[in-house]
Specification:
14-stranded antiparallel β-barrel, disordered N terminus, 4 helices, about 55% strand, mainly beta
Length: about 400
């Protein structure tokens, strides 16, 4: 019974977190993604609703629409620590984060708009029979942000903007339980959804005709799941330890982000950008699960995380190759917030390097096709989770193509 409780507690520790460089999906605009996801000090369309609402009022035109979708094709491998020779590879379904932005100019200084995107989310599947199946088999996590926005030009060179954020979150995960029956091992499915709130603020500066700067703050959003469904599949003799119609509550912090950016028009054709992004992961120090129906084998759990604040360093470039064609490239370095001895297998947290490229092709004076391609390479990490003594070597990578449309007039 004690082993069963500890195994289930391990599941609680390892299957529900939202990790900075793992679940923070930096794909909020095809143009920005092509430039290493820079954009705080750039005027690249209504996607400024996310990157810097202050920039919105400096866009040229009266009506703006853009939207896009990306396909996250990721790969994770695990080799168990010596003396074991065990290894595993995840078989992840393709994630499809999306964006939509729309804005309208009310007068020469005031622009209003609305945006929707999915900056957090992940789909990960290790398989039903891998060595860590008692920790996690698969997980699907999503958070959709909707942001109404107002942007106002205080002067011809300074603008401010912002808006509230409404977040719709959901999670669905599975793990095995070490309970044998004629039908195989036991298991559990945890599923829940919630709505939470935050805000997004930005300042934009035209320092000179060739130099722009910006600062953006996106607040922390605390996702509180109340009444999530906990469904157990166990042998009849153990059913009393895992009550039917059980529910759980949990809190999942999605971190604040503070970003400083610079844009420089180096020549008539070349635009360069630099973004420095601080992610406030130190708020994620503990994960607590509260079950409505407790038993001797199923108790509430308080689990240390001890995440640390992290930085993302971004550089991007855009070159006007033809009057109707702009090509882009970028690179960024994303630090992991997960300290040693707190690494878990649901999305292995490692320092990551992103390399991107992309283009925009003007179909006419109003309509543009935008595309991007991002490759993310995680550094190999030999680490694990000390409370459960689950250690090994993790490698991760992802290819992320994306496409979208922009329309303005």
């Amino acid at each position: 019974m004690k082993y069963l409780f500890l195994t289930f507690a391990a599941f609680m520790l390892l299957t529900f977190p939202v990790k900075g460089e793992g679940y923070q999906v930096n794909l909020q605009g095809q143009k920005q993604t092509g430039m290493g996801h820079t954009g705080t000090a750039l005027l690249l369309g209504p996607s400024s609703i996310h990157f810097n609402p202050g920039a919105l009022s400096f866009l040229e035109g009266n009506y703006f629409l853009s939207g896009g979708i990306s396909g996250v094709i990721s790969r994770n491998t695990f080799v168990k620590a010596q003396p074991s020779v065990y290894s595993a590879e995840s078989d992840n379904p393709m994630g499809t984060p999306f964006t939509f932005y729309g804005a309208v100019r009310l007068n020469e200084r005031l622009v209003v708009g609305i945006g929707a995107n999915s900056p957090y989310g992940n789909s990960l599947k290790w398989g039903d029979d891998w060595d860590g199946r008692y920790l996690i088999q698969d997980i699907s996590l999503q958070a959709i942000y909707v942001q109404p926005t107002v942007s106002y030009a205080i002067t011809p060179n300074i603008s401010i903007g912002g808006g509230p954020v409404v977040v719709f979150g959901s999670v669905d995960l599975n793990k095995a339980l070490p309970l044998e029956s004629a039908d195989g091992e036991g298991g559990v499915n945890l599923k829940g959804s919630t709505t939470a709130y935050g805000y997004n603020l930005g300042l934009f500066f035209r320092v000179s005709p060739k130099l722009t700067a910006g600062v953006n703050y996106r607040s922390e959003v605390l996702m509180k799941i109340d009444g999530g469904d906990a469904v157990f599949t166990v042998p009849p003799g153990m059913a009393g330890n895992f009550p039917d119609n059980n529910t759980f509550s949990a809190e999942l912090p999605m971190p604040s982000n503070l970003t400083f950016g610079i844009g420089w028009k180096a020549t008539d054709k070349l635009l360069l950008a630099l973004d420095l992004q601080s992610v406030g992961w130190s708020s994620y120090d503990e994960l607590t699960f509260d079950f409505e129906k407790n038993t001797a084998a199923l108790q509430d759990s308080e689990n240390p995380r001890n995440f640390e604040n992290s930085m993302i360093y971004r550089i991007g470039a855009e070159y006007t190759a033809l009057p109707s064609l702009k090509v882009r490239a970028g690179i960024y370095y994303d630090e992991t917030p997960i300290p040693s001895d707190y690494l878990t297998p649901e999305t292995p947290g490692t320092n990551k390097t992103g390399l991107s490229t992309g283009f925009s092709w003007d179909l006419n004076t109003n309509l543009t096709v935008d595309a991007s391609l991002l490759y993310i390479a995680g550094e190999e990490r030999k680490d694990g989770y000390a409370p459960l003594n689950f250690y090994g070597t993790y490698n991760s990578s992802a290819w992320i193509p994306g496409v979208g449309l922009s329309w303005s007039f």
